[in-house]
Request: fold
Amino acid sequence: MLLVSNNELIKTINFQGRTYIGDPMNAVRIFNEKEADELVIADIEASLFNKAPNLELIYNLAKECRMPLCYAGGVNNIKTAEKIISLGVEKLAIGTAAINNINFINEVSQRIGSQSVVVVLDVKKNSNNRYTIYSKNGSVDCDLDPVKFAKSVEEAGAGEILLNSIDNDGMMNGYDIEITKLIKSVINIPMTVVGGAGNISHFQETINKFGPIGLGAGSFFVFKGKLKAVLINYPNSELKRTISYKNQN
Amino acid sequence: MITIIDYGLGNVFAFSNIINSLNYDFNIAKNEKDLELSDKIILPGVGSFDWAMQKLNESKMRDKLDDLVLNKKIPVLGVCVGMQIMFDNSEEGNSDGLSWIKGTVKKFKNFDNNYSVPHIGWNDVKIQKSTNLFNGINDPQFYFLHSYYVNPLSPECIVGITDYGINFPCVINHRNIFGTQFHPEKSHAWGLSLIDNFVRI
Reply:
């Protein structure tokens, strides 16, 4: 999962700060070579500053990208959704717009198909130690129960849930298992978790607990070593094959 | 001339980028005139059945495509919903498809959480019949993104299947008509080889 701010790749911790990573086009080329399974590009300024998605950047990234591409950031109307799909993007991830108007999910999934509609849940524990959903790139506490919201977006036609833990973002200490369990137990559509992956064992642990689940990572694929030097990396196919779901039953 | 149909949905540019890198001449067709020199067609697709048919009809390329594919028998490769619209109709919508191949399109049933719908992700392809599309491709794996699968009336056109709770057709071939449920344009080296093989047919 790559974050774009002002056409540059950056990384955050708990959705704060901006560490410069590099040029998005370059990163796509590297992930092409490494045969990454899927790429999510999230423009974190779009919903925060009410900016429209940068269509030129999306067009260039989609053209270059040899793996499935999901775009997130500022998708809040049907015309934009159609336009971005026509540029060669497989999926759209919708966050703030779904919170503001869940009917938008009905509309967009009818038009482009559920398979291309991902709803993003940016979750964090609030001061009462309860999980809640945030919008506008983690800046607005919506006081929404993620479990209820996940069910309602599924009913509205979302094809996938992207569960993003603000608490674990950039920490590289593992996924937020607690919220993953809560959400996974109430939905039937596919789910991907992101936020906290720091090493390969985090992937295996999560699959062991939940079975087939999408495993997303940002920091883990762009930093290397204790000093977090920027180095774009990705497990090779042999290593990937070792991470598998063994049905314990 | 290889022609990639741009009817407003699908990875036209991903295909064009790949075909360009393979050094073949190609053009992108947005209207009927662009189809004049076609001797091979790629019909991409990402989206819902009704939307795809609506966009294709609006493009005014429909009649010429019917002629090229059904009369002139030009090889055509349909991808994902691009393949699904080649059939008669779909459980996903109300529109009529192109009816280039007899059959319908059905929705996956939700078996259990090991097989969530939509089917999203990488999966293996089991080749049932020898085909030039898979020349030199070992251990084929491709990217899938769909809730519906094709159900041809005639099983002879099923070339490849994939297991997702059930074995569903993921590659079909009927004379000059080819189709893949997965996205070769987004399946790294496997996809590149398949596209190369199609272009060489």
